[in-house]
Amino acid sequence: MKKEFLFIALAAIALTGCKDPEPEQQDDMPEWYYTGGKLGTTTNLTSMTFRQPTPATEEAGLGTMFAQGDQIAEKPFVTNTEGRQHGLGPVYVRASCQHCHPNYSHGTSVPEGRYDAQNVGNGTLLVVINPETQAYVPWLAGMPQLFGAAPFKAPLDPDQITVEWKTAQDEHGNKFPDGETYELRYPEVHMPNTAVYVYNQGYRDPDGLLESEGYEVKLENTIGVYGSGLLDAIPDQDIIDQYAKEAADGKLKNGLNPAFWNGGFQTSGYYKNDPQWGPKRFTYALTRGPIMDAAGANAIWNITNVTRSDRKYHYLDLNGTIYAEYASKDPEVQEAFGTEQEIYNYLTSKELPVEMSDDEFTQVMIWHRGLAVPAARNVKDPQVLKGKELFSQIGCDYCHRPTWTTGSDEVRDPNHFQTTAKMPRYPNQKIWPYTDMVQHKLCMENDIRTGWCRTTPLWGRGLHRKATGDQYEARMHDTRARNVIEAIMWHGYSSQSDAYWPTQQFYNLNKEERDAVVAFINAI
């Protein structure tokens, strides 16, 4: 509770408007200083940097609604049946956005030992899959719930789940030519089947994965929520053109994910794209977009299980009924709630009372679309400028494309909340996210599910430790990289990686040059 109170107190400070402690608010800054363009960049580089509204949000008179959305995102939801933050449960992943996104950064590093889901800042979620198909198991939600609101019980018991960090060695023996060494580590998650509620209640998996513990459990860290509105403003055709460019030049060893490109832009496949909404642009797996139906709009429902007018039902297992069936037969749940049929009907109902109002959802989305990206730092430092030059020379900018230009930014809402007129907008802005918005394969040890991963935007990542107090930088999809060097060298761990060539170019730089690249990446 002390940590939660601290975050609430810090939020109040942030909303009063902190001043930039660095003297770089000058008119002669290079254009890449304004990472989110003039409409999307904050020059507040304090620990509250990721919490700031964009200039466009304030200029549109949306400051109050932004602050209201910030409060909803920050404070824990509760199991009450009324009140601003009511409706948590009956099972849930976390109680607030802040639990996974400390100070709205990406999640903090995962320590070895017990998987501490209660820790504010542990935004690394569990991914439980069939190793043969890479599909999520049907007896848990895609983002498995770790808590239950009495009398309901958690689908997974996090106290039985542990994380072990293992070391890996690349073809260079984790040593640069000049003798400087680095470390590579990756997580392995251990979860016994006794941690699964329905298994303890008598459920048996038709595929036998649950009984034999033949499933795999991976970690997948949350990303920073800032700047999402700017990515949403990139024109669809520009992203499709990027796919076409990468498909034509033949530089990627693994090509493009056929779910998105198969001789042309793909609108169906494993990740079904609705042509009406264009290419997906959010989440590692590119499952979400546009922002009004993207990760944040989805998470405010499925992480907390708080219903709203477009989702009058609970987020349960992938099968949709397994948890409901076995919870309804649990004598302790029956004693507190009602008959087996009443429990089952409640858990599977599609017409539950609305717990988050449309106005509240609008406030959350104004906040989500209105979060600024921090300005680049030390943009006149010779070391940073040298690193910027080398970043391009060695080929890092192929996947981490430096810049895009937003279009007219017509906000689209697949959920039809009729709230788009109220959203902050970022038309015709040159922005610097350092991502190509496309998926690639790095072929790492204990890799991400399917191996395909969207190029993570680099903007602001160098401020993670400042914003969260994390001991490490928590880079890569599962926090395996504790610093920039480790992140880069994981890119070239396998000769089959799409980033193998630029990683080898970095490997052959001298220490002064490597340090310059690191300084640049931390500056953007």
Walkthrough of the structure:
This protein has helices at residues 2-15, 37-40, 55-59, 63-74, 97-100, 197-200, 209-212, 228-232, 236-249, 295-302, 322-328, 331-337, 340-348, 358-369, 382-393, 464-468, 484-491, 500-507, 511-523, and strands at 41-42, 91-92, 113-114, 124-129, 147-148, 162-168, 184-190, 216-221, 373-374, 404-405, 430-431, 439-441, 452-454. The chain is 30% helix and 9% strand. Helix 1 (2-15) runs antiparallel to helix 4, helix 4 (63-74) crosses helix 14 and helix 15 (382-393) crosses helix 19. It is globular and about 70 Å long. Mean pLDDT is 93; it is low at 1-23. By secondary structure, it is α+β, with helices and mostly antiparallel strands. It folds into 2 domains: 2-72 and 225-288 and 366-523, no CATH class; 91-218 and 298-358, no CATH class.
Question: What's the quick description here?
Answer:
With 524 residues, the protein is of the alpha+beta class.
Strand content: 5-15%
Low-confidence stretches: 1-23
Q: Write down the overall mean pLDDT.
A: 93
What is the end-to-end distance? 34 Å
> How would a textbook summarize the main sheet?
3 strands, antiparallel
Q: How many extended strands?
A: 13
Would you tell me the structural class of the helices and strands?
alpha+beta
Work out the helix count: 19
Tertiary shape: globular
Question: Keywords for this structure?
Answer:
524 residues, alpha+beta, three-stranded antiparallel β-sheet, two-stranded parallel ribbon, 19 helices, 13 strands, disordered N terminus
